[in-house]
Specification:
Length: about 220
């Protein structure tokens, strides 16, 4: 799967302060791991089940300046969580997961694996996070609005609570197309909400807020 704008937003938005150990669930080509490594000193474990995506991530990480801090695992997160839950827990877990739960699938098998939750349900994702997240850790995930509500319900039933929500719009005239959700183990009386608009009204230029967020990553800025 190609690098997309919303994944770049996730990598730039995720708070890496006070993190020493990060887990990237479904790393794909390694984008999120590389972005987080660029602005942290953390060690990062990246998990990817797809053969081709794993191979590409391996190349990308090997050719980066962060090869000594990123470890790549070619397996499902369900297996990973059982094998590594006795290790030191993660301060931050991040994921851009497959999100379509029961919708019509594409004829392309790789697209299905990347976008459709046939290999990782929301229940399984939350179970893995609970197994691996530290007491004070944060779980950050990118999803469309409907699926974001579904995951929030699953998480709360299992003891993970919504702390922050970032709504993402292409422009002010269009509906929100992605949410970035931040969860923790401690319930809060009210979660914080914010909105990121990529393009200003009636313009193909990038908004100031988007430019500021992505300035460390987009060479056009």
């Amino acid at each position: 799967m190609k690098v997309c704008t919303d994944a770049c937003i996730l990598g730039a938005y995720a708070d890496v302060s006070n993190t020493q150990k990060i887990l990237d669930i479904g790393t794909g080509t390694g984008l999120l791991s590389l972005m987080l490594a660029q602005r942290s000193k953390s060690t990062i474990d990246a998990v990817e089940i797809d053969d081709d995506a794993f191979a590409q991530a391996k190349v990308n990480i090997a050719e980066s300046a962060f090869i000594d801090r990123i470890s790549l695992y070619h397996q499902s997160v369900q297996i990973f969580s059982r094998q590594y839950q006795e290790n030191t827990p993660y301060d931050l877990i991040i994921s851009n997961p497959p999100f379509y739960q029961n919708s019509l699938q594409s004829p392309d098998l790789q697209t299905n694996k990347a976008l459709h939750a046939t290999t990782l349900t929301f229940d399984e994702l939350i179970d893995a996070v609970i197994n691996l997240l530290s007491v004070d850790g944060k779980f950050i995930v990118l999803l469309p609005p409907f699926e974001a509500d579904q995951l929030t319900g699953v998480a709360q039933k299992k003891g993970l609570y919504l702390w922050d929500k970032l709504a993402i719009q292409h422009n002010p005239q269009k509906a929100v197309f992605r949410h970035i959700l931040s969860f923790g183990r401690m319930p809060v009386s009210e979660y914080t909400e914010d909105t990121l608009v990529i393009h200003p009204e009636n313009s193909n230029a990038y908004s100031d807020k988007f430019r500021q967020l992505l300035s460390d990553y987009y060479t056009i800025f």
